[in-house]
UniProtKB/TrEMBL annotation, chain B:
Organism per entry: Mesorhizobium erdmanii
Any Gene Ontology CC annotation: plasma membrane
GO MF annotation, one: ATP binding
Domain of life the protein comes from: Bacteria
Official protein name in the record: ATP synthase gamma chain
HAMAP family: ATP_synth_gamma_bact (MF_00815)
Function: Produces ATP from ADP in the presence of a proton gradient across the membrane. The gamma chain is believed to be important in regulating ATPase activity and the flow of protons through the CF(0) complex.
Subcellular compartments: Cell membrane; Membrane; Thylakoid
Keywords: ATP synthesis, Cell inner membrane, Cell membrane, CF(1), Hydrogen ion transport, Ion transport, Membrane, Transport
Topology within the bilayer: Peripheral membrane protein
Keyword flag Cell inner membrane: yes
Amino acid sequence: MAEAFKFELVSPERLLVSEQVESVVIPGAEGEMTVMAHHAPVMTTIKPGVVTVKNASGGEERYVVFGGFADIVPAGCTLLAESAVAVKDVDRADLARRIQEAKEDAADAKDDQSRSKAEQFLSQLTTLEGALLPA
Amino acid sequence: MPSLKDLRNRIASVKATQKITKAMQMVAAAKLRRAQEAAEAARPYSERMGSVLANITQAIGGGGDAPALMTGTGKDNVHLLVVCTAERGLCGGFNSQIARHARDHIRRLLADGKQVKIICVGKKGFDILRRDYASMILDRVDLREVKTLGFANADAIARKVIHLFNEGAFDVCTLFYSQFKSVISQVPTAQQIIPAAVASSAPAASADGASAVYEYEPEPGEILSDLIPRNISVQVFRALLENAAGEMGAKMSAMDNATRNAGEMINKLSITYNRQRQAQITKELIEIISGAEAL
């Protein structure tokens, strides 16, 4: 039995999760990472992806987040997501709209740097869509 | 002297108005509760954002890699004012208070020889400021179609502001909105968002040693350049939510006053009506009696 720690998932609209959890998998900007209790303090940006929360009672919940960042300290982990929804509530049309917007952004980008950024974001979104489809 | 019929019509019309204001008051009360809930739900995010920002600015120090959005352009010649007001009237002095606050600020800036640009959020502020400063208004954001304020609305405004900043259109950006103190009190507030006013909680953060040894992924500068625009969106979002709650609060008390005024008016009119009716009856009686006496 792993030790529990406090995890909070906050979006600008509301506080989604605030509970004791065992581990959290965060889609960090530089790769996925699993956070457990007594993690070294890290601050990382996150990319669009799925956050998997394993709570202290053994249940598992999954949330889709679209960008944001995570603040990890030994005592807990706070995830500030630009927008977050539970996987079961994901709106396919919304996802499609985001992808469409990302495509437009990539097409409109003026210089190489912003284009590669937009394309990267687009590919992250499509990966996310792929990951969710079988669900 | 109005006739009895006129008075009756008048009373009926005031009663109808009272019904409307009463209904508006109740609608505002219901909306206020929702707006307050939304504002409260958004609070954790902005609080966490503030503490994270304080941490990271501390880590980065006043170093050279702080993004321009944070440090500003180093000048303060051109000011951008984002004035957030309501879309609708009938909410007492709510809109004019914010507009007056903004106008005072503009006057001060102009007296100092600064250049002023304005973005209006909400129709009412635009209507008021247009009278005096039409040439300075760059843009207006219309939120009338928006049923529930989402983060996306705030994000769009923030993006507009950041885009202007990157083009070098202004040096300092100030946000005007009404802080929601309570249902009866809203305080017009000016908040500087670019360059970001450095959080004063920095010493508190350094007090607990844990925050000192953060690891950053990617580099702090990179996170910060991602964080600052987001922080601006959050500030705008908070302002919009506070405004929404304030508007409903102001509307509620304004409509409460109106309902009460209408009640008073009905009372007064009814008294006049009854007196006049009595006077007429008396007059008729006198006529009949004096007619009978004459025989």
